[in-house]
Structures are given as C-alpha cells and as structure tokens.
Amino acid sequence: MMLSITSKLARRTSVVRQTVRAVLEGRSYSTETSVTFDIREPFKLHRFESGPALNVTCTRDEALQYYRQLQTIRRMETAAGNLYKEKIIRGFCHLYSGQEACCVGMEAAIRKSDAVITAYRAHGWTYIRGVPPVKVLSELTGRRTGCAKGKGGSMHMYCDNFYGGNGIVGAQVPVGAGIAFALKYQNTDNVCLTLYGDGAANQGQIFEALNMAKLWDLPCIFICENNKYGMGTSVERASACTDYYTRGDYVPGIWVDGMDVLAVREATRWAAEYCRSGKGPVVMEVETYRYHGHSMSDPGTSYRSRDEIQEVRQLRDPITTFKEKIISANLVSAEEIKKMDVDIRKEIDAAVKEAKAAPEPEVEEMYNDIYCQPPEGFTVRGCSPFDVHASK
Q: Helices (DSSP H) in the chain: which residue ranges?
C-alpha cells in the first residue's frame, strides 16, 4: 500500500517537473547574478548549540561551475560502467553516480591546500581535486597515461593533497587523523576531510581515530557518506544507531542532505571554520544514495527494489534538482545547460577514445615507485632471489 502511494506521488511529481521543464526550456536567457535559496532539509546537530544558516547564496558563476562538475562526474561514471561491461576495465569498480553532490559541495567549501582522503568510491573525488577525466579513465583502463601510471586502478588514485582512494574498509580513517595531526604539527590552518561509508561506520579503528582526534583537537572532519547500504546490507540491519552524526559521542556532529550540493557546501564550510579555529574535530553525516550496486559486480537490485531506485532518481536526483533550481531562479538559461551537456558529452567521449588508445605500462614499470626517493642503484627482487630489477 505504502509503495503504491509512493509510486503515485513519484508519478505526479514527474508530471509537475515535466510541465515546469517545458516552461523553463522556452527561456533562453538568464537575468540574475546571485540568488539566495532555502535549505531543503534542515541540518541536524549533535553537541552544537547552533549550526549553519538555513539559506545559502549562489552566484551565476558558481551555479555554472557546480553543474559542470556534477554532470562531468555523472558522465564519467557512466563511461566507466560501459568500459567495465566491455571488459576494458578489469577488477573492482565502484561508481559514484547519485552521490556527486557530496564531493562537489565539499570541494567548493575548502581550499586546495586542505587535504582529502576517502574510501574506494574515489573517481569523482579524484576529478574534483584536479585530475582531468581522461587521466581518471586512463587509470581505470590500466594505461600508462593514467594518474597513477596505470598501476593503481579504480581504488588507488592520487594528486596533490588527495590521499586516495583506499581499498580496505575504514582503514583510511586513522590515516586521515594522522594527516590532520601533520597539518596541526606544521602550524597550518588547513583541515583534512576524512571520508568513509556507512558500511565502515562500525569499525573499531574509526572510534580510536575519533578519540585521538578529540584528545589533540585535530583539524579533521570525519565524514560518513551514508548511501543507505553497506554492500548489500541496509543501514537499519547493520547499525543499532543510524544517526551517524551522533556516533562521535564527545565529538560534535552535523547531519546534512547529501543530495543538495549547496547544503553540503554550507555545512562543510561551517565545519571547516570550526576546525580551523582550533576547536577540534567534527563528525559530519551526508545522507545520499547510490544508483548502482556496491560495485560493478553487484546488480544492486537483490536487496532493494527498482521502484526505490527510480523514486530517488525522480524526486531527489542531485543534478536534476540543482538544474531546475538554478534555471527557475534565472541564474542560468536552459540553452546554456543544453550546450554544457553537449560539451561534457563530447569531452567524456574524447577521453574514452584517448584512454582506449593509450599504451599499457611496460613490465619494468612494476618495479618503480616503491619508494619516494630511492637511492642510486636501488634494486628489488623479482619472483626469485636471483631475479633482481632496477627500481626508480
């Protein structure tokens, strides 16, 4: 009965959106340079007396930038999924489709000198931190032109102040606390965003990291990207307490709608200012949703219904809702959005073509990059004690 009512609501909402879209698409101009929006879902707080403002300002340039980033990640992940189905991408491949507002909103709120470390759903974060789509796709396809020379693959991509991409569940969290310790030790006012999923939220090492971070007031934002499922297990079946923003106990926390890029931006900016002021760590829960399975080997429909996925796409999709918001506010025109969509599609298509054509790494490359600055003449053994190779 409830599913029937929800499905009817989704269909009605879809009809309304189609009507609004038809009106908006007739408009080929924008008239505003800055607009203030109300936050759709109010923030929830733990051990904070007050939180971020419930209205946010977005300029025209910001709207265009955020939309381009959101759509680029979505297109890039779609391309990655297709390459995996073609067996050009091998191994593990965890897609970020549906969660784009998380990384786009957070990156908009921090500095390039701030640090980020995340789990294995890292393609979007790699792009948003500064790696072009062609370098991401080349890494996914194991090419020497990839951002890790084709040796890292889906879960191990890096760039300046981006520490990956980590394949072990929850293992990046204490590393993130260590990065925050280094930032404080070096007397900077930078912060570290340490991300993990709801599936890792019950790991003991997370609570150990929280304890140390609070003891030393480290500038770390511990961010739980709650996409509602840890692999194939819903949060309700996995956690006795699903209010992840409260799980830090003595560490203050905040909940934010992870499908609203502007809400994520404001919550992250507010949390970062708290950390920069020397008050210690914050736990932030961003409630989001992934459209695909846990990884490409998971169809994603054995533990949830197709209707559930479709409902989120229709009612809460981070790209569609943001697009409608900025067009209806006259920040951008429908024509500009259409042109951007075409440009992004061409960029990703070209990146796929380039990645496919790029050469794979030489076998000798396997022995390189073991140490950051190896001494001259450094060698490593191969498959036997008598098999020695130069390493640089």
A: 2-25, 60-85, 100-109, 123-128, 133-140, 172-185, 204-215, 235-238, 261-276, 306-316, 318-328, 334-357
SS (H, E, C) 78-106: HHHHHHHHCCCCCCCCCCCCCCHHHHHHH
Asked if residue 292 lies in contact with residue 300, where contact means CB atoms within 8 angstroms, the answer is yes
DSSP count for the chain of H helices, then E strands: 12, 12
Q: What is the DSSP letter of 115?
A: E
Q: CB neighbours of 205 closer than 8 A, spacing ≥ 6?
A: 170, 171, 173, 174
**C-alpha–C-alpha distance, residues 346 and 351, integer Å:** 9
Which alpha helices (H) appear in 239-333, and where do they start and end?
A: 261-276, 306-316, 318-328
Query: What is the rounded (10 degree) CA torsion for 105, 84, 117, 232?
Result: 90
CA distance 57 to 262: 8
3-32 pLDDT, tens digit per residue, is: 444 555 555 555 445 544 544 454 556 788
Q: What are phi and psi of 387, to 5 degrees?
A: -105, 100
Task: Write 203-209 long-range contacts (CB < 8 A, 24+).
Answer: 203/169, 203/170, 203/173, 205/170, 205/171, 205/173, 205/174, 206/170, 206/173, 208/174, 209/173, 209/174, 209/176, 209/177
The pTM for the full model equals 0.91
pLDDT digits (tens, 9 = 90+) for 121-146: 999 999 999 999 999 999 999 999 99
